[in-house]
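Ticket #4471: structure output looks truncated?

Reporter: J.K.
Steps to reproduce: submitted the chain below (115 residues) through the standard prediction queue, then opened the result file.
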Amino acid sequence: MKTRPYVIIVYLFALTLMGSTGCSTPLTTREKGAGIGALGGAAAGGIIGSAVGHPGAGAAIGGALGLGAGALIGDQLQGRESQSQQQDQQIRRNQAELDRQRQEIERMKRQQGEY
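Returned output as attached by the reporter:
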């Protein structure tokens, strides 16, 4: 049985992705997007490349394009996640300040009632 070149490239991308997921720190959204894009691009490129007689080249080109596109999309998603986290932190700070002000108002009301 003859192994097609694009199959080898797809396996190499898969092994690279699996190897990077074994790291002690979790993957960022950008890295996940890049990995998914590379695998999807390599698979699609291999299929398209096999239709024109160059599956290896198609998988390599598709993998590279998928890597770039996936990284860009992942970067955008990561930026949105970061912005959302910052907004959540600001909401918590605002809520803590409101709670502090309510307590101060209650304290002042009690003081006025004592006089």
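Triage note (M.O.): checked the attachment and the full token line is present. The chain has a mean pLDDT of 83.
Status: closed, working as intended.
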